[in-house]
Amino acid sequence: MKFFIDTADTAEIRDMAEVGLLDGVTTNPSLIMKSGRDFIEVIKEICALVDGPVSAEVTAMDSDQMVVEGLKLAKLADNVVVKLPLTWDGLKACRRLVSDGVQTNVTLCFSANQGLLAAKAGATFISPFIGRLDDLGVDGMELIHDLRAIYDNYGFETEILAASIRSAAHVQECAIAGADVATVPPSVLKGLVKHQLTDKGLEAFMADWAKTGQSIL
Ligand code: E4P
Predict the structure, then answer these.
(1) pTM (predicted TM-score)
(2) What is the spatial distance between Cα 2 and Cα 6, in angstroms, rounded to a whole number?
């Protein structure tokens, strides 16, 4: 499973890229607002930091304007993926951009039928939002399982990019469910390394090592 990081904070992206853990980046208008940066400038900077796909979201509501914005974003760097909302206009724009050789990420997917439509529109990625479904008391992970089954039934190549991930358990369950990618907030990604038994075990090893009075160097 590939790891994308869900942020527009270039310091965090640089930090993750240095560990070699980063396969791509996703952004959205809320994350751009949070960064306080110019959208075009920050996308260019992220694309220079990361070799993998970088999702940049259109903000137009009609398909013609989405295509115009999408083509502009796609020209910023070779690894830009144009993010489009899961609306009728978004699907139309997706089909047109894909025909022009632009990679697309159809976002705000909350049902398997929406995901089926996005795959039929040729989306490169589909972004099902797990956490926001969980917030409604619906099991978001079921959507990942359903999309996996549907895409496998028909051989769709659209990659399942699990989004709105809130916890380490979400990441693990996505991997078990066969998501192609998980886009994860930096804090959750860093938290994956933590286990209380690792900390406890290391503490005991170091205490015993000190008792030996030895040093490796
Ligand atoms: C994905 O592309 C979205 O940017 C993101 O995962 C949304 O997550 P949230 O529901 O925590 O805002």
Answers:
(1) 0.95
(2) 13
Is-contact 6 34, C-beta < 8 A? no
* Ligand 1 nearest-atom number relative to CA 163: 6
Length of the chain counted residue by residue: 217
Reported as a single tens digit per residue, the pLDDT across 116-127 is 999 999 999 999
Identify the active-site residue in 83, 92, 194, 200: 83
| pLDDT recorded at residue 19 | 86
Q: Which two tokens stand for residue 4?
A: 């994308």
The answer to whether 83 is a known catalytic residue is: yes
At residue 105 the predicted structure's pLDDT band, cuts being 50, 70 and 90, is very high
Are 146 and 109 a contacting pair, CB within 8 Å? no
Report the nearest-CA residue for atom 1 of ligand 1: 163
Distance CA 28, CA 8 (A): 8
DSSP 144-207: HHHHHHHHHHHT---EEEEBS--SHHHHHHHHHHT-SEEEE-HHHHHHTT--HHHHHHHHHHHH
